[in-house]
TrEMBL record:
Coiled coil start-end: none
Alphabetized UniProt keyword annotations: Signal
Molecular function in Gene Ontology: hydrolase activity, hydrolyzing O-glycosyl compounds
InterPro entries (UniProt xref): GH (IPR017853), Glycosyl_Hydrolase_39 (IPR051923)
Leader peptide range in chain numbering: 1-22
The protein's name in its UniProt record: Glycosyl hydrolase
SUPFAM superfamilies documented for this protein: (Trans)glycosidases
């Protein structure tokens, strides 16, 4: 058998960046919600989000809900109920300043002086009203859809962000500002590149991306192809900016609809686990918000109805249960690229929390057995979280085999498939034998 040592990870720097993620920047586990304008299930939704390990909610602060009459702005009562319920569950937030207003060029983008001035008034009012309660403001949502390859569209957006950022810093200086909310098409057509070239990366706290791949063909829709694509984007933006650009994936998921872009519920669950762990391997990715918490409807063929972790009656999908099982590792453990590797469609990712180490492992394609060698004297049963059966939590799955000779390694054989296994190693290092 051929032994693959963790030192081979240096060959994989194109996929896994060297170095552990900074301990002072915890990875954000978030989700999108659609309840800021009111919901009878508000408290229960936030309870379920908190129980799943979600730490941040993303919501739209619609301009049209604030300015119901020209020149008259007010905070809807439902917003205060939302804020109270969110704070009660100790959930952080992203507030999106977005969408047009019927009184200004019939909901037009704020590109003309008239609409831009009115939008600035709305931003000034909202950021004053919400000051001290917002972690991130995001400037507009998917502006690039107006012309993902059009420089004039990106230039106008960059100008809007500069003005909006100044207002936010003046009214709510502790809040961070995200720009972009860039779609997959925008990413492929250079919208993010042009924002960085315009100097926007130096004026905001990060770029937000919506890198969906659910409608891509074949293997291009898998988490593994997704992270390779995101890696190339990350590296390009770093080169253009001359430094690392913080990236926030404020929307990402796979829908469980019955149409061509949908997946079944077990596939959504395993894609969620793999995508979250792969996102953790990129130090510039600071968090990911699953879109969204609750399905928006029940029509099986309507894609927009089925992105959620919960069904409309708040019944959990398998993806919700998986997220609940993996969230402690995402939030509390740091990725160590020097002890991780990938070869032959095997993913072996090492995460540490102090002296405690876990190996997150899966195989793409056919299942296969691997022998895990722990460079330490393990005791008793192998403890593992199997995301195929996440409700079991950390459970015993066989025993470590430890020879009597002290210099020999303890080993165990694990069958891997496309659902990640989270194998507890304690304070031992590990070697992988195929």
């Amino acid at each position: 058998m051929r032994r693959l040592l963790p030192c081979l990870a240096v060959l994989l720097q194109g996929l896994f960046t060297t170095g552990a993620q900074a301990a002072n920047e915890p990875f954000i586990i978030g989700t999108a919600t659609h309840v800021m304008d009111g919901s009878p299930q508000l408290g229960r939704q936030f309870q379920l989000a908190s129980e799943a390990g979600i730490g941040s909610l993303r919501e739209d602060a619609y301009w049209a809900r604030v300015e119901l009459q020209p020149g008259t702005l007010q905070v809807p009562a439902s917003w205060r109920e939302y804020q109270d319920a969110r704070v009660a569950r100790k959930l952080d937030n992203v507030v999106v300043l977005d969408y047009g207003n019927q009184f200004y060029d019939n909901n037009a983008l704020p590109r003309s002086p008239l609409v831009a001035t009115a939008f600035a008034n709305y931003v000034d009012f909202v950021t004053r009203a919400l000051a001290g309660t917002v972690n991130f403001y995001e400037v507009w949502n998917e502006w690039d859809q107006a012309g993902p390859g059009d420089r004039a569209v990106s230039d106008d957006y960059a100008s809007l962000v500069r003005l909006t950022r100044q207002q936010i810093q003046r009214n709510d200086p502790k809040a961070k500002v995200l720009a972009g909310a860039i779609t997959s098409e925008g990413l492929n057509k250079g919208f993010a590149d042009r924002l960085v070239q315009a100097g926007l990366a130096d004026q905001v706290d990060g770029l937000s991306l919506h890198p969906y791949v659910h409608c891509a063909g074949g293997q291009d829709r898998t988490p593994e192809s997704w992270i390779k694509w995101l890696t190339s984007i990350d590296q390009k933006l770093t080169r253009l900016a001359g430094r690392a650009v913080p990236l926030y994936l404020t929307e990402m998921s796979w829908p469980t609809s019955s149409e061509r872009c949908g997946v079944d519920e077990p596939t959504q669950a395993k894609f969620l686990a793999r995508a979250f762990f792969l996102a953790k391997t990129r130090p510039n990715i600071k968090g990911m918000w699953w879109y969204d918490l609750v399905d928006d409807g029940v029509d099986p063929a309507e894609r927009e109805h089925h992105f959620g972790l919960l069904k409309p009656d708040l019944t959990p999908k398998p993806a919700y249960v998986v997220l609940k099982a993996i969230a402690p590792f995402l939030a509390q453990y740091q990725y160590d690229s020097l002890k991780s590797l990938q070869a032959d469609d095997l993913y072996l990712l090492n995460f540490t929390k102090g002296d405690d180490q876990v190996l997150v492992a899966w195989a793409v394609g056919r299942p296969r057995q691997v022998k895990i060698e722990a460079n330490g004297r393990q005791q008793g049963s192998v403890q593992m979280v199997d995301t195929r059966r996440p409700e079991r939590g950390r459970a015993p799955v066989g025993r470590w085999q430890c020879p009597k000779a002290e210099e020999e390694h303890c080993t165990t054989v694990i069958t891997l498939d496309d659902f990640p296994r989270i194998i507890s190693l304690g304070d031992a290092s590990w070697l992988f034998t195929r």
